[in-house]
Amino acid sequence: MKAIVLYRAGGPEHLCLEERVIPSPQKDHVLVKIKAFGLNRSEIMTRKGYSESVHFPRILGIECVGEIVEDPSGEFATGQKVAAFMGGMGRDYDGSYAEFAVLPKSIISSFESDLPWSVLGALPEMFQTVYGSLHVALKIKKEETLLIRGGTSSIGLLAAQLGRSEGLKIISTTRNPKKIHILLENGADEVMIDDGNLSQKIKDRDFKINKILELIGTSTLKDSLNSVITGGIVCMTGMLSEQWSIKDFAPMDFIQTASYLTVYDSGKKRVNGLYFQEFIRKVEANKIKPVIKKIFKLEEIAEAHSFMESNHSGGKIVVLV
After folding, report:
1. If you count DSSP H runs as helices and E runs as strands, how many of each does the chain have, helices first?
2. Long-range Cβ pairs for the range 115-118 (8 Å, 24+)
3. Cβ contacts of residue 303 below 8 Å, gap of 6+?
4. Of 8, 32, 48, 298, whose CB has the highest number of CB atoms within 10 Å?
5. Which residues form the signal peptide (predicted)?
């Protein structure tokens, strides 16, 4: 099989295309023929060596869609369409940047759909992250105001659509005025230009922000915590700033009185596969329109990483295998 192997941390050119023997599944694992996968910012961080727990060589990739080739337990039928969601994939063991992968059954969800693989490949992690952030972490309620910081990311765009469909008022942010129309076309009621000081702009405009989905990360987190109402919740889900931690973190200074800070990590808290099937049905019915910016082939993985790192995407990047 063809696989993309990373032998040491570095730039996109370190992603090496090579031939490998197709692996065999052991107990509680399945062999999946990978049809497509989405790219994720965390894979850039792993490629750069920021993920200290990851040992090389490693096949990256934290999600995929494909078909079951072999399941020793017989639980999944050969040819069954499945999606795989994180759970150490591409970090603790080899992931989706390949034609085949052996994956634990615990991260597999079966589904039915006639959507093309290029669309299905964009969905697993994007859906799980958005659904988990909104419902599990932020506990959204109808008529609340949700601010999405980092709105032009694939997660931000889908969060706006899902939030709007569930009766929320959506305020999305971008640093680039040229991208305002993208946000308005994907569910945002209003758009704010993010110069790093949103809290003052929110006070000036007398916005009452109930919940914030923080996708930029640690560099803007304190400002986001200053932007919610008393009793409001900020969920840090993304790290577009590529910073894991906050130096000299002082909780009493950082978190406002009676406001709440939480996180959502889809690798630690999974969403039931039934919700994923429901989400696919909404996509099939054109009720939700995932934004797919560009599609690459497996052998174009270095180019795909460079494109993702350029921050020009404004949607999900998908690789067809």
Report:
1. 10, 15
2. 115/280, 115/283, 115/284, 117/35, 117/36, 117/65, 117/320, 118/36, 118/292, 118/295, 118/318, 118/320
3. 12, 296
4. 32
5. none
Report the alpha-carbon distance of residue 161 to residue 186 in Å, rounded: 6
Beta bridge partners of residue 139, listed in sequence order: none
CA distances for 284 relative to 16, 67, 163, 281, 288, angstroms: 35, 19, 18, 5, 8
Each residue's pLDDT tens digit, 28-49: 999 999 999 999 989 999 999 9
Distance separating the N- and C-terminal Cα atoms of the chain: 11
Q: How far is CA 9 from CA 101, 235, 301, in A?
A: 22, 30, 15
Whether this prediction's pTM lies above 0.70 is answered by: yes
Q: Is 243 left (phi over 0), alpha (psi -120 to 50) or beta?
A: beta
Q: Can you list the domains of the chain with their CATH numbers?
A: 2-123+290-320 (3.90.180.10), 125-263 (3.90.180.10)
pLDDT tens digit string along 183-238? 999 999 999 999 999 999 999 999 999 999 999 988 999 999 999 999 999 999 98
Question: What is d(CA 261, CA 197) in angstroms, rounded to the nearest whole number?
Answer: 18
Both tokens of residue 256? 């406002």
